[in-house]
Design goal:
This protein is of the alpha+beta class and 162 residues long. The chain has two domains: 67 residues, Gyrase A, domain 2 (2-Layer Sandwich), CATH 3.30.1360; 65 residues, no CATH class. It is 41% helix and 17% strand. The strands form two sheets. It has a three-stranded antiparallel β-sheet with strand order 3-4-5, with no helix packed on it. A two-stranded antiparallel ribbon has the order 1-2. β4 and β5 form a beta hairpin. The longest helix is centred in the N-terminal third of the chain and has 22 residues.
């Protein structure tokens, strides 16, 4: 088992890494957006100004223990933790990404668990539906998925609030 402070040390290291090295890439103004969630980085750039190999080479040369495993967009979209980001002509469109292995199983409503535990998954799904800037059609689709999950787990629809 690792140290209890290993997460803190890793976060401090990554913040220093960003402040010192990633900032240089951002200062070139060739990168439109850089964000990180834990150890996943999302870098949005103009391919006319900078090539992906340039970014990979720069990041991989910074530290011998850190190697960038890049995933490039396919069909104008890329998944970044729980989101699917699609590039259109004039903007980026955000949707919720559901992994192919998603099971949609929650605690069955008829099980002997506290109601708070049963509600937790639905609070998460509903919050996840409202947080990103989804259009009305996508929100309605997500609401339908939530209702299906509830139905499949014997959850009363009247306990769900959009």
């Amino acid at each position: 088992m690792g140290s209890t402070i290993s997460n803190l040390v890793a976060e401090i290291f990554l913040q220093l890494y960003e402040d010192v090295h990633i900032k240089r890439l951002l200062d070139t103004k060739n990168i439109a957006l850089y964000t990180r969630y834990v150890d996943d980085m999302l870098i949005i750039y103009d391919i006319k100004k900078i090539q992906p190999q340039t970014i990979n080479t720069h990041i991989n040369q910074i530290h011998d223990k850190i190697k960038l495993n890049s995933t490039h967009e396919t069909h104008n979209s890329i998944n970044f933790p729980d989101f699917k980001i699609t590039r259109n002509q004039t903007n980026l469109e955000i949707d919720i990404y559901r992994k192919p292995t998603t099971t949609d199983t929650t605690i069955n409503f008829h099980s002997n668990h506290p109601i708070e535990h049963k509600m937790a998954a639905f609070r998460f799904h509903i919050s996840r539906m409202h947080c990103p800037p989804l259009n009305a059609e996508k929100k309605q689709k997500k609401w339908g998925i939530i209702q299906t999950i509830a139905k499949n787990n014997n959850f009363p629809q009247n306990l769900l609030h959009k």
